[in-house]
């Protein structure tokens, strides 16, 4: 299995973890780790490609709204001061906690809203799912 495929498998496991979490700080940490690992996949794909294919990969990535959102969230999470450009200026703006009441209640769950500079909003888990689909298509395109 190549480096890109190994990283993709890692983000699949990470995605499974964020779907299973509740509303605690660990859930938020795992969500941010997912976005960081998901964005790192680009580096792993580039490593597997011929130099002549790397510019096209960059174009493929920049054409995806979801991957641009992932890039912004990952870079904002990793860096105290962001020196690179914001693509869509994605920011987690709300954490909605759904708590249950009752003797046999499930644990609380959280939904995260991501807002872009144009005011568009997305659910963080939907972004994660769509980004994985985008990466899967890119991996297939490059036979990785």
Short synopsis of the structure:
The chain has 5 helices and 3 strands.
Characterize the structure shown.
It is a single chain. The protein is α+β, with helices and mostly antiparallel strands and 144 residues long. It has one domain (3-141). It is built from 5 helices and 3 strands; from the N terminus they run ααααβββα. It has helices spanning 3-20, 25-48, 51-62, 65-78, 124-141, and strands spanning 91-98, 109-115, 121-123. A 3-stranded antiparallel sheet has the order 1-2-3. The chain is globular, with a radius of gyration of 16 Å. It starts with a helix and ends with a helix. The mean pLDDT is 91.
Layout of strands and helices, then pairs:
Layout: H1 3-20, H2 25-48, H3 51-62, H4 65-78, E1 91-98, E2 109-115, E3 121-123, H5 124-141
Antiparallel strand pairs: 1-2, 2-3
Helix pairs in contact: 1-2, 1-5, 2-4, 2-5, 4-5
Sheet with the most strands: spatial strand order: 1-2-3
What is the element string, with H for helices and E for strands?
Answer: HHHHEEEH
- Low-confidence parts: none
Q: What is the 3D shape?
A: globular
Query: Into which percentage range does the β-strand content fall?
Result: 5-15%
- Count of helical segments? 5
What's the β-strand tally?
3
- Overall mean pLDDT: 91
């Amino acid at each position: 299995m190549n480096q890109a495929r190994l990283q993709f498998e890692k983000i699949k496991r990470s995605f499974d973890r964020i779907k299973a979490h509740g509303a605690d700080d660990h859930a938020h940490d795992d969500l941010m780790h997912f976005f960081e690992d998901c964005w790192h996949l680009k580096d792993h794909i580039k490593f597997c490609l011929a130099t002549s294919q790397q510019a096209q990969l960059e174009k493929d990535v920049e054409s995806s709204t979801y991957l641009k959102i992932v890039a912004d969230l990952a870079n904002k999470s990793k860096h105290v001061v962001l020196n690179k450009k914001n693509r869509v200026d994605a920011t987690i703006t709300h954490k909605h906690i759904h708590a249950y009441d009752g003797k046999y209640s499930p644990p609380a769950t959280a939904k995260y809203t991501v807002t872009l500079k144009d005011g568009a909003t997305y659910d963080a888990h939907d972004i994660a799912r769509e980004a994985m689909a985008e990466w899967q298509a890119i991996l297939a395109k490059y036979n990785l």
